[in-house]
Write a structure and sequence with these properties.
Elements (H helix, E strand, L loop, with lengths): L25 E9 L5 E10 L2 H8 L3 E9 L4 E7 L3 E7 L7 E9 L4
Antiparallel strand pairs: 1-2, 2-5, 3-4, 3-6
Amino acid sequence: MKYDHQKAFPYPVLRPDVDDYIEGEFQSTIDVEGQDDGSMLEFTAHFALSVKEITKAIAKDNARYMMLISCRDTYYREKFLTKKNTIAKKISSSLLRGEVQIDSFVVTVKRS
């Protein structure tokens, strides 16, 4: 998903080059490991968030960390949500071929 930094949203968004949140960052680190037989891949995302307002929304079940895995060649696309700062998911390697894109977000899960 690509964001236009010139686009305005009706709510604050934590993203580069925008001052909706002056202090704070969201970062993720993704690790990918394959099984010895090559049949499965395990994707592990580690999330780091320093915005207290968003962290509280996650704790109150209003938001979640999300890892989105997509592959254009196979049309595979799946999202994984968690309240924890780490998530690990195994995916059959037969579902993935060519370029695989992994994106991380914090998303709302309840309307306010």
